[in-house]
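Blinded run. Sample ID left blank on purpose so nobody reads anything into the name before looking at the predicted structure. Input follows.
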Amino acid sequence: MPEGHTLHRLARLHQRRYAGKPVEVSSPQGKFTDASTVDGRVLVRAEAYGKHLFHRYDAGTVHIHLGLYGTFTEGTLPAPAPVGQVRMRLIGSTQWTDLRGPNRCELLNPDQVDAIKARLGADPLRRDAKPDQAFERISSSRTSLAALLMDQAVVAGVGNVYRAELLFRHGVAPMLPGKSLDSVLWKEMWADLVTLMRYGVRTGRIDTVADEHLPEVTGRAPRQDRHGGEVYVYRRTGQPCLVCGTPIAHQVLAGRNLYWCPACQPG
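Blinded prediction complete.
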């Protein structure tokens, strides 16, 4: 599932390409039945909150959640005939964009949009984020920090990669209860998360490795993974830690894969 930086990157792209002008909106697949309501309307704003993308028109807001399989494809006009199950097609003055396989693609009114945002936690990529509220929820919970960081009601936009890498970068054991996390350490982790995710928005990839641990410095082979980016622990089960050499550990927590270094993140 795409992490928050991907949705913010898409929001910026759609804002640049389509906002402020009328947009043709259709549903070649036919499942987005409200496409006609916003077809031909001006896209007022595209924005992201956590893993949710919102296209706001004066007639309502299109809410998109990509889920596990949702993808966008795009190109320059003229747009080709739709191929496959295209849930929503946008056509602007020079560009076209197709949406396939999302978990959600629906037209919402302002109250429904507000309800979605209200149940989400602090988004590190939003200027209105309130990290202190996130810490209140974390510090009052006996749940593991690894699970809390993946709870979108606590921190919105963090997924498996950022979760694992953030904990490693701060030497925090994944199973540490939230109530045991120090407030000073949380502020450091939050600031680091903001920096990492902003970098992800700019580059379109997740890189968490310090300069001294990069392949060109250490002589190791670059990471080969469809997710891209240089990371410390994510999907490196059994491989040596880039800092201490200890084999990276793995377990399934709440249905998701968890990775950590037992030596650098002692529990």
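Unblinding after everyone has recorded impressions. DSSP finds eight helices and ten strands in the chain.
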